[in-house]
Each structure stands twice: as structure tokens, then as C-alpha cells.
Design a protein that fits this description.
Elements (H helix, E strand, L loop, with lengths): L2 H27 L4 H28 L5 H35 L1
Helix pairs in contact: 1-2, 2-3
């Protein structure tokens, strides 16, 4: 594998990491409200289902992990991300129903 293949992937992971950190900082500053909990679950879901998942796919693409192991890791990460998205949706809908009742 040559550097022309590695640099685009490393830069994508770097900028994704910066974006996730910024989203976590944004969600952290929104303390105290129910919407901040929803955003925290969304950010956590994105972290597992997108960022970490993509990182492990790159690890497998570079031959540092077997595809058999990757399948289990992807299943776990997508499940964690999906659960976070479900919780965010549930809490968001619950929040909206409370606001509409007022």
C-alpha cells in the first residue's frame, strides 16, 4: 500500500475525529435540558455507527485485521449506534409529546 492510498483515508479519519470532538463539545455545553440528552445520544450513535465503524473498516482494508473478526466488530458497533439512535428518537418524541400537551 502506498502513501497516495493512505493519506486520503488518514485525513478523512482525522477530520471525522475533529468533527466528533466538536459535536461532543457542543452537546456537553447544552447541559440541563432534555434536548441535550437527545443530542448526546445522537452524537454517541454517530461515534459508534460511523466514525469507529469506518476506522475498523480501514484497519481491515490495510490487512491489519481479518474480515471474520471485522464482521463481529461491525455488528457490535452498528448495534451500539442503532441503540443510541433509538434512544434519541424515543426521548425526542417523548419530549415533543410533553411540549404539545402544554
Amino acid at each position: 500500500m502506498n502513501m497516495s492510498e493512505i493519506w486520503p483515508n488518514l485525513s478523512a479519519m482525522f477530520f471525522s475525529f475533529i468533527a466528533i470532538i466538536m459535536l461532543f463539545m457542543f452537546a456537553w455545553r447544552m447541559r440541563g435540558g432534555a434536548m441535550s440528552v437527545v443530542i448526546n445520544y445522537l452524537v454517541t450513535g454517530i461515534f459508534f455507527a460511523v466514525f469507529v465503524h469506518a476506522g475498523f473498516e480501514l484497519v481491515e482494508a490495510y490487512g491489519w485485521m481479518s474480515f471474520d473478526v471485522l464482521r463481529y466488530v461491525m455488528g457490535i458497533l452498528l448495534t451500539l449506534g442503532g441503540l443510541c439512535f433509538v434512544m434519541a428518537g424515543y426521548l425526542g418524541l417523548k419530549l415533543m409529546s410533553v411540549k404539545s400537551d402544554e
